[in-house]
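Data availability (excerpt). The following record was deposited with the supplementary files.
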Amino acid sequence: MNKLYIKLSIVILSAFAIGGCNVDPVIYPDTYVSTVGQTNTGTGTGTGTGTDTGAGTGTGTGTGTGVGTDTGTENTGDGLSVGANNTIQIQLTSGGAIKTYSTNVALTAIQGIISIAAIESQSSLITFGLLDSQVGTYDLFAFQTESLYMETLSIGKIKITASTLNMTTGKGNLQGTFSLDLTDGTNKYPHVIGSFNVTH
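Predicted structure:
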């Protein structure tokens, strides 16, 4: 009787042991799909609006008006009317007084250089030179009267209107006019005119 219970007890315990040690069923992972070499397709919505409106207006007006007026005339050597023999006349300003030199008037011609002078005193004199005795217009040089003189770069003109001067003997008569600018070192006297009538 005891043996029967013992066997029965063993069977029951074995049943419980087997029932309590059942192995859990195998859980497999979801199916794995490789993405290597595949193209993924997605849908994205992006709305962008860009407006660039630029207006540039440049208006330039350039007006250049240049007027150059030169009313000066060429210096031809014209001056005062020729006076009496052995006189030299000069007018420093337009419409001004005319100074006449008639004392110690001299005409010399040496080695092609003609000098005309009148020396009344140490402070009252006039002298000038030229390089030709023929009728025509020539450059005037070495002009001086009182304290006035012709500047180095200034060009005066002398116009011979009549001539009997012999350049070899230095004798004869020379008549004409002159026109030039003078200065005293401070003030300028533009367009000084005069005339001469001298005999040697």
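Summary of structural features: The chain has one helix and ten strands.
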